[in-house]
Amino acid sequence: YEYLTYSRDIHGLREQEKQVDGLIDSVLRMHAEIQGGGHINTDELIECQSRVARVQSDASGLLIRLSHLRELQQTVRVAEYNLRALILPARTARASETHAFLKQDLERAQWLDKQIDCDITYMEAVCNRALESYKATDLRLEQVRQTNARRQHHLELTQTVLLGALLICLDAMHAFHTEIPFPHEFQWPVIVFLMALAFAIPPLLLHWR
How many C-alpha atoms does 179 have within 13 Å on its Cβ side? Predict the structure, then answer.
């Protein structure tokens, strides 16, 4: 029964491993592009992080499958122990024939135990890679957040300086009764232009780099 269960589930398990490895490779390629000076796509980083976490944690993920595989291995070891206890020195031909079948089952149980142990080793390696990839993505997202915070601070500072300089200029002109000779028909277009410029400066600074 344990052998049939293993044969039924192992293909899906290995497909799941390939899926997680593919996700890890995509995340690592993105990190390599960023380190090489590529554009930081925050949305794509978050999507890769959530996909790796989802594959690890959902009902069909590697962690759940790994726990099922460990349970199956424990069942195989119990069956192997029971088979060893049943195989006693044969006293009759029929008993000898029965022992031959039991020995075949014992050999299969031993093989299955070793095979499951190898599969668990591979799965643990994939899970560890997925965890490290998740941590690396989380660190990269923190770096992106810090970069955005610095840009936001730079934007606010630059905007404050520009608006402050404009206000000081207007106050000085008013204090010294300075008037700029300007045609009346162009006054409102200039006012609208200055207002539009004030609205356009923040997003222009945000996308400056």
Answer: 6
Is residue 52 a contact partner of residue 27, using CB atoms and an 8 Å limit?
yes
- Would the CA dihedral through 96, 100, 106, 110 be positive or negative? positive
Q: Which amino acid is at 97?
A: E
pLDDT per residue as tens, the chain (209 positions): 777 888 888 888 888 888 888 877 877 777 777 666 656 666 766 776 676 677 666 545 777 888 888 888 899 888 888 888 777 655 545 556 667 778 888 888 888 889 989 988 888 888 888 888 778 777 877 877 787 788 778 777 877 777 778 778 777 877 777 776 767 777 778 778 877 877 776 667 666 55
Kindly report the CA angle at 164 between 163 and 170, in degrees rounded to 5? 90
